[in-house]
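Severity: low
Component: inverse-folding endpoint
Summary: output formatting inconsistent between runs
Steps to reproduce: submit the following structure tokens with default settings.
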């Protein structure tokens, strides 16, 4: 029977395998505590990514339609709007229970900072892209703001190209995924520690398109609608991480044994 911890017959080989175990566990553990910056693009398992396309996330059974609609904008050129409790729209925000709302943290399932998920879906007429100038998440106790989280400076402005938006075609359950960095997750958890926090409201503010003075390359809003939803991030359980590490060790041991037989 093959044992991934007993590769080869010599002590040196055994120690090498043990070092692989330690290194593998360290890498897997590190991926769950990467230092991020504010609101950032994240992968389907809430890990930071470098491109818009890499943040494209299929919400699966939860689906786009089932998630609370937090902000909808639909204006040509530039669109700016926000929502405050309870479901009060401002600027270009489109009113309606399925358009722009301020759901509670309990409704969103945001019971920890690493569960905060904001999904963006854009429907640009003519298949064009769009530029995001700002995105701010504000948490309210009643009508009083108790914390806010904004788009990372490195992502401001953030352009979604026509190719990026093409990913949405034929997939009604997918979004471009934004999450909180490690520091902001901790800040969010302090909000959760306040009495009655499950009943706190979450509101969004955003500007899309090209305001006056926007630099060359900015992509205007082209009708829309452009929609933001709130959802609960998918986080791998510790058992899953251990299983992945074990699988990697088995694969390494299999390759080694084949080399020995050769």
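Observed output (run 2 of 3):
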């Amino acid at each position: 029977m093959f044992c991934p911890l007993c590769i080869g017959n010599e002590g040196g080989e055994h120690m090498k395998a043990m070092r692989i175990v330690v290194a593998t566990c360290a890498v897997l553990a590190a991926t769950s505590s990467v230092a991020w910056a504010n609101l950032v693009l994240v992968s389907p398992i809430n890990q930071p990514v470098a491109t818009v396309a890499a943040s494209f996330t299929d919400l699966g059974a939860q689906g786009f339609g089932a998630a609370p609609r937090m902000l909808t904008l639909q204006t040509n050129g530039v669109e700016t709007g926000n929502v405050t409790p309870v479901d009060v729209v401002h600027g270009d925000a489109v009113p309606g229970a399925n358009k722009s709302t301020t759901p509670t943290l309990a409704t969103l399932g945001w019971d920890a900072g690493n569960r905060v998920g904001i999904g963006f879906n854009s429907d640009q007429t003519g298949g064009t892209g769009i530029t995001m100038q700002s995105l701010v998440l504000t948490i309210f106790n009643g009508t009083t703001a108790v914390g806010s989280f904004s788009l990372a400076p490195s992502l401001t402005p953030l352009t979604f190209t026509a190719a990026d938006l093409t990913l949405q075609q034929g997939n009604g359950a997918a979004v471009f995924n934004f999450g909180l960095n490690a520091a902001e997750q901790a800040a969010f958890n302090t909000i959760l520690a306040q009495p009655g926090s499950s009943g706190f409201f979450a509101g969004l503010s955003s500007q899309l398109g090209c305001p006056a003075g926007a630099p060359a390359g900015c992509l205007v809003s082209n009708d829309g609608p452009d929609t933001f939803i709130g959802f609960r991030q998918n986080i791998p359980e510790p058992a899953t991480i251990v299983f992945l590490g074990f699988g990697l060790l088995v694969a390494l041991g299999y390759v080694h044994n084949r080399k020995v037989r050769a």
